[in-house]
Each structure stands twice: as C-alpha cells, then as structure tokens.
Design a protein that fits this description.
globular, alpha/beta, 20 strands, seven-stranded mixed sheet
Length: 478
C-alpha cells in the first residue's frame, strides 16, 4: 500500500503531466475512452468473476448494471465528445457592443475519484469517463470493501490506460486519509453521508469543489387504482433485482393506503416467489450481503421489538453465506429502527396512511432522499407529487431506471448529496465553463470614461432603458 509520501509524489507527477497539456487534446481523450471500451470487451470474464467473488452478484445483474452501464456511458461520451468540447457561442448585450462571446469548457486539472463497494466497477469508471472526457488527470481510489474488484480494476487500468495521467491507488482508511490531505481540483465521492462529511471537511481546507453521491431513504408511493402486478414487479426489480437492495436508489420503504396494503403485499409475495422460488436463500438470482458487518446491521433491524410480528413475507437469514431472503414488513412504526436509517439491503417496510395525499408531508418530514417513486394513474396527484416532493430524482410508475438515462442528471440534494453526473452532466462535472468576451478596437465610446458629465449620465440611462429612441436622442445630445 502506498505511503503518504508516495501519494504526494504521485499527485505531483499528475500535476506535471497536466501542465504539459497532454490530457487536453481531443486525441488523448478519445484514445483513453477507446482503451476503456477495449478493456471491457476483452476482460469481461475477469470483471464478472470479481463481482461474483465480492458480492455474489448474479451474472445477469453484473453484466447489465456494471458492464453494460459503463460501456454505454463510454460509447455515449465518444459519440458526443467533440461537440461537448466545442466552445458555445452566446449573445452579448448593448453593454459590450460590438462584441462576441463564447463559453469555453476547460478541464479542472487533477481530480480525485473515490468509489464505493456496492457497484465497484460502475461507480469507479462512470465518473472516470466524465473526468477523461473533460481532459483531466485522475487518481482513482476503488473500494477496499470489494477487494477482488479493486484488484482487477487496479490491474486492468494499469494495463490499458495511460498511467502517466490516470493512476489507481488501492488501500483503506490510511490511504484515503492521506489522499484527502492533498490539494485536488475536484473530489468526486460516492458513499455514505457520514464519510461524505469527512470528504467535504477535508476539501474545504483547500477550497476544493466536491461532488457527493450519497443516499437516503427513497420512498415508493403506491396508489390503489393501478396494475398492482406490474407495480410489484417493478418494485422488486428496483429493490431485490438491484444487488439485493444494496443500492443507493433502491426503494427503501413503501407508502400506501390501509385499503391497498393487503393487496400490495399479496402482489409482492406472489411475484417474489415467482422470481426467487420458495427457498430464496438458495436462489442464484439474489446477491449476497457484502460482509458480516452489514449482515449483522440488517439482522439487528429485523430483531427490533417494534416490528415483531410484522414480517409478512420472508425474514429468513443465512449468516454463513451472508444471505437474507427478500423481506416485506407491514405497518412498520415510524420510530422503529428500520424507519430511521437507510436500509441498504433486502428488507422493505410498508407504512400505511389514511389517504394518499398524506404521503407528501410524511416524505418531506424526513431528509431529502436520493430518489422518490410514485405509482399512480392519477394525473393530478402526479403533478402534486413532482411539485411537492423534494428529492434528488424521481420516476413515475417505475423504479431505478432514471439512473440509466444519459439525458438525465443523476445526483442528490441535501443529505442525499450534491452535484450531478451522467452523460453531458459528467463532462460538465469535471469542467470549468470559462466565459470569453471578445471585442475589436473600433466602436470605443467616450461615454464610459471620465470625466463623468451630465450628458454621459443621460446616455447611460438611455442605454439602460433599451429604448432606441432615447438612445438616439442622447447620442445626438437632445
């Protein structure tokens, strides 16, 4: 593992490389994105094996959520890179007439990307694509909690990428601490809000801007007059079909009316059994819990006296294999443990309300979530929900798929994070939009210079009014 001194030298080397302008060219950026494409295509098997080793991820999930997601992001960046790099022309006002203006995107410099363990391939490389597309030199810190994927990423990136401008640092808390003591031009962090505060505090010492992709309790509101079978499938896909609920945008709890709750439980139970069988702990289509610490944390949520007797589906645990069956809890009290922390696992509480409109105030009484979901056919309530609920992002009649859309920014608000990325937003996250105003030497007006006479003031006021008649009168001295 690298020492603090070695990390400081690595950062200094990157600054020297960035200063040469090497990473700014279109050719370099394109070559590195193509290298990532080649790495994914040629070493897919190794990547999938590492993900299976760390998380027991079903191959289907690993391929779709990690391999395909990164490959798609890379392809999108390559397709649009030249356009993103092109300065944007903007209109100028009378204040600088005659003039022209552009907004020039330029790389920030040397950036640090710290990833997390639940999607260890995707959540390291997706930000990297944006950082490279924007022309930065990069330090990558994969999660040590997913050691097999960290090792594979470290090995493959050193083999395929330009190691003079893209460096991978493995390690744990000592390495992260040492990295955070250094000055960066941006820090991109994905993880918990607890560690996010540490990152932000360290960044503040150097006035370093940050993107924090955190989490929170993402609610799902379910109306009654809908197709509950489709609704159940889509909730299951976003919860148990995404890394056994170990996903920042996974449905964290359901809000529905008392009248609808039993029907929803029945629909969820039926579909869960269809997807994972009568013995879900033996299913090859359900990911494991990442480690014993997280398993014990989730088991503690289930052991809470306040939810005793409220498990209506699942609840089985296999500590030896770190597996927890899909579990549904009906009428979880607001003061229960499971309703007062992000679950990040295969447990799903249902909270009932008297009328659906109460859901908005209940959601807003908590910290702003990373995602909020609504299943309804009621157009009026859709509008109220979108307007009234504060969240990082939303999906109506769906879960989790908003993450896959390149045209939509992905990021949190408040406790769920700050800043956003994906598609063009990734490029923007690692760029400075430099405004450039250009003028010639003609058209220089004496009115802007001292001495400040009443006539000049009159001309200034006419100019500010944008009334051409007043401007002409002032210019003519009338």
């Amino acid at each position: 593992m690298a020492t603090a001194g070695q990390l400081a030298r690595a950062a200094a080397d990157l600054r020297a490389i960035f200063a040469t302008g090497k990473t700014r060219s279109f050719e370099w950026r394109e070559s590195q994105l193509k290298a990532l494409q080649e790495m994914i295509a040629c070493r897919e098997k190794e990547i999938l094996e590492a993900l299976r080793s760390d998380l027991n991820k079903p191959e289907y999930e690993a391929y779709l959520h990690e391999i395909v997601a990164v490959s798609s992001s890379c392809n999108f960046a390559l397709k649009n890179l030249r356009q993103w790099m092109t300065p944007e022309k903007v209109k100028t006002s009378m204040a600088s007439f005659p003039s022209s203006a552009t907004i020039v995107p330029e790389p920030l410099g040397v950036v640090l990307i710290i990833s997390t363990w639940n999607y260890p391939f995707l959540l390291l490389l997706d930000p990297l694509i944006g950082a490279i597309a924007a022309g930065n030199a990069v330090v990558l810190k994969p999660s040590e909690v997913a050691p097999a994927t960290s090792f594979v990423l470290s090995t493959l990136l050193r083999e395929y990428m330009d190691t003079s401008a893209v460096k991978v640092i493995e390690g744990a808390t000592p390495q992260v601490t040492a990295l955070l003591e250094l000055k960066w031009d941006k820090i991109f962090f994905t993880g918990s809000s607890k560690v996010g505060r540490v990152v932000m505090a360290a960044a503040a010492k150097h006035l370093t801007p940050v993107v924090l992709e955190l989490g929170g309790k993402s609610p799902v509101v379910v109306d009654s007059d809908i197709d509950l079978e489709v609704t159940a499938r889509r909730i299951i896909s976003g919860k148990w079909g995404c890394n056994a609920g170990q996903t920042c945008i996974s449905p964290d709890y359901i809000l529905t009316t008392k009248a609808c709750a039993s029907q929803l439980v029945e629909a969820l139970s039926s579909q869960l059994e269809k997807f994972f069988g009568e013995e879900p702990l033996r299913s090859n289509d359900l990911a494991s819990i990442i480690n014993s610490n997280h398993f014990e944390r989730l088991a503690k949520l289930l052991d809470d006296d306040k939810i005793a007797g409220k498990v209506v589906y699942g609840g089985q645990l296999d500590g030896a294999n770190l597996r927890i069956a899909p579990t549904v809890i009906l009428d979880a009290p607001q003061d229960s443990l499971i309703m007062n922390e992000e679950i990040f696992g295969p447990l799903l509480p249902i909270v009932t309300v008297n009328k659906l409109e109460d859901c908005i105030s209940l959601i807003n009484a908590r910290e702003k979530p990373l995602a909020a979901y609504l299943f309804t056919n009621n157009e009026r309530f859709k509008e109220e929900f979108v307007r009234g609920v504060a969240a990082g992002g939303m999906a109506i009649n769906e879960t989790a798929l908003q993450f896959a859309e390149h045209a939509l920014p992905f990021g949190g608000v408040g406790e769920s994070g700050m800043g956003s990325y994906h598609g063009k937003y990734s490029f923007d996250a690692f760029s400075h939009k430099k405004p450039v105003l250009q003028r010639g030497f003609k058209g220089d007006s004496a009115a802007r210079y001292p001495p400040y006479t009443p006539e000049k003031l009159k001309f200034l006021k006419a100019l500010m009014s944008r009334n051409m008649f007043r401007i002409l009168r002032a210019m003519l001295g009338l």
